[in-house]
Write a structure and sequence with these properties.
The protein has helices spanning 2-9, 21-31, 36-48, 55-71, 75-88, 92-108, 112-123, 132-148, 152-163, 169-185, 194-205, 209-225, 229-238, 240-245, 249-266, 269-281, 290-305, 309-368, 375-408, 418-435, 449-456, 458-473, 499-514, 536-539, 543-559, 573-578; strands spanning 439-446, 481-486, 489-495, 529-535, 565-568, 592-595. The chain is α+β, with helices and mostly antiparallel strands.
């Protein structure tokens, strides 16, 4: 080996240049993920010797070229190259591999809708794939993609299909990682830890430290859920050096974010802060914002416990931004899944309709041979055809309306999502401006909502959001616009309403929220909100300015103790400045007062 490296260093061609072409292709295949530098060198050799290749070898080389383009970050070019290979090849395995590569490329580029469409198309070929390794590769991508978008049962199905198909050791390790993660998310892991420890042992044996430590994260979460925080922290700390040696940013961030949360729960604020800062150090290389959400939340809570108000505020703002980005990412994935699912359903319906039409045409051919006796049958069949077309047209229209509603409506509460609220509110404001009517905006945010989720679970939190939405809708007229802006934040645009009337509505709504009976959930807790109110008389007809002024009042209500209404009145600017009210540094040019606690 040393002699070979020396020859290469002085300009002599490497031994692989003289190897049979098939052997060089096999070497490139084997090295494409483990040794990228050697892989690219071998690929250049293959391109130089392409005139020696037969049709099958040329297709394998084209696949490796597409793979290298993905590796270099040239996603669009890689997708175009792989699609050209899919269109030209007659080999099912090659078409399947190229399709799976396209799915990976789209996933890396956050194009989940296109990725899921291609995944559906590729999986239709899986039963015809001859190579077990190629089949496992595609099923593995399907498992990971479904795990990413929260479809844990589908992820579990694909991972267990791989494990049932006698995979090699490395593939079995990676499939086991997805299987255990999905089982944990579905609460299907047993009381003992044997299944998880076997998975760790298997991945350690296969020298896959990243996969082994992802399983350790799942085990640590399971222990933490069982109240064994010290045990979970000890295990993760024991393997932290090994985890950092992988240089895998997402794995390192996941582990440190979990350690930060567990250390804070134990009361070790120093360790919690150090681990959270370790997550932030990885932020530039993360593909998911969830570890950042956990890290900023931990830092915010540590600063609160230390009574460092300035730091707490800064970390809370960063937490809110990261949390919003993560929620948007989750929504994008869920929407992509629903869109592709509806498209698949629509295609199935269209195929069924075409099958029915073909059957009718065949029957018509027979009817033509039987003259008058079958005339009545022809009429009946035509009626059936028209009815079928009408039925399926109705079904398709319902699907389209359902998709439109999904795009405009918040899935949890049934009110406008942020995008649709913005469109309707801007239209209403433009109409008010034309007609000389006033308009008012109420924004409110639920107090301590994270505590409800943390103490009672996200199911209880979702119940609270629905109850708040239902209660708020009772104060809206048909011409008003209500929407969920994100998380636990809501807004109401009131048509033809002045500031005093809007403040009364906000106060009534605040009181109604505080009266919500939570015993239905099995828990007793308070639901309160902080409200900010402004109107077009004070802020103009710009939705952005109305939202900005109402948001400042909302934050003022938060700072003054929550569960109150604060109203924006620019004429009281000087009085506000003299009152020494705690404000954010960027708030200026307005004065407020609040209504009842």
């Amino acid at each position: 080996m040393a002699a070979l490296m020396l020859l290469a260093s002085i300009g002599t061609a490497p031994a692989s240049a003289f190897a049979p072409l098939e052997k060089v292709i096999d070497q490139a295949e084997a090295l494409r993920s483990s040794d990228p530098k050697s892989f690219l060198r071998l690929l250049r050799q293959l391109e130089e010797r392409s005139d020696e290749a037969d049709a099958a070898q040329r297709e394998r080389i084209e696949y490796l070229k597409s793979y290298s383009l993905v590796f270099e970050g040239k996603i669009d070019l890689a997708v175009a190259n792989a699609r050209a290979l899919m269109a030209s090849t007659k080999d099912v395995d090659t078409k399947f591999r190229a399709g799976v590569l396209v799915v990976n490329a789209y996933a890396l580029n956050r194009q989940f809708t296109e990725g899921l469409r291609q995944l559906e198309e590729s999986l239709s070929l899986v039963n015809d794939v001859r190579s077990r390794d190629v089949r496992h590769q595609g099923l593995g991508v399907a498992a990971l993609m479904n795990l990413q978008i929260g479809q844990n049962r589908q992820a579990l199905f694909y991972s267990e299909r791989i494990l049932a198909d006698k995979p090699d050791g490395r593939t079995a390790c990676l499939a086991r990682q997805v299987q255990l993660d999905a089982k944990h998310n579905l609460a299907l892991l047993g009381a003992d830890d044997s299944e998880l420890t076997r998975g760790i042992e298997q991945c350690t044996k296969e020298r896959e430290p990243a996969a082994a430590n992802f399983i350790r994260i799942t085990l640590a979460k399971k222990w933490a859920d069982q109240g064994q925080r010290d045990r979970a922290v000890s295990m993760l700390q024991t393997h932290l050096r090994e985890i950092e040696a992988t240089r895998y940013p997402h794995l390192i961030a996941e582990v440190k974010a979990l350690l930060a949360e567990l250390s804070l729960e134990k009361g070790d604020m120093g360790a919690a802060e150090a681990y959270a800062q370790g997550v932030l150090a990885q932020s530039g290389n993360l593909t998911s914002t969830l570890p950042l959400v956990k890290a900023y939340r931990t830092l915010y809570q540590v600063a609160q416990k230390k009574s460092d108000t300035e730091k707490a505020l800064g970390y809370y703002q960063s937490f809110a931004e990261a949390d919003k980005a993560y929620l948007n990412e989750v929504k994008a994935r869920e929407l992509a899944y629903q869109i592709v699912r509806q498209e698949t359903l629509q295609k199935t319906q269209q195929i069924n309709l075409l099958d029915q039409q073909n059957q009718v045409l065949q029957l018509q051919g027979k009817v033509d041979q039987q003259a008058a006796q079958n005339t009545r049958l022809i009429v009946i069949l035509l009626i059936v055809l028209v009815a079928s077309i009408g039925y399926w047209a109705f079904k398709i229209k319902r699907v389209q309306l359902s998709l439109k509603k999904m795009a405009e409506t918040d899935a949890l509460t049934g009110i406008c999502n942020r995008h649709h609220f913005t469109i309707r509110a801007e239209r209403a404001l433009a109409e008010c401006a034309r007609n000389g009517e006033q308009a008012a905006l109420i924004m409110f945010d639920l107090d301590h909502f994270k505590n409800i989720n943390d103490r009672f679970g996200h199911g209880t939190g979702d119940w609270a959001l629905k109850e708040v939405s239902d209660a708020s809708k009772g104060f809206c007229r048909r011409i008003d616009v209500i929407g969920r802006l994100g998380g636990e934040e809501f807004a109401i645009l009131m048509y033809g309403c002045d500031l005093r009337a809007a403040a009364r509505v906000a106060e009534d709504c605040r009181v109604r929220l505080a009266q919500i009976d939570t015993r239905e959930t099995g828990h007793v807790f308070a639901i309160t909100g902080s409200f900010g109110v402004t109107s077009s008389m004070q802020s103009g007809y710009s939705l952005a300015k109305l939202l900005s002024h109402a948001d400042k009042q909302l934050y003022r209500a938060k700072h003054q103790g929550r569960n109150r209404v604060c109203v924006y009145e620019p004429t009281q600017e000087h009085a506000r400045e003299a009152s020494n009210v705690l404000e954010l540094p960027t708030r200026e040019g307005r004065a407020e007062h609040h209504i009842g606690a």
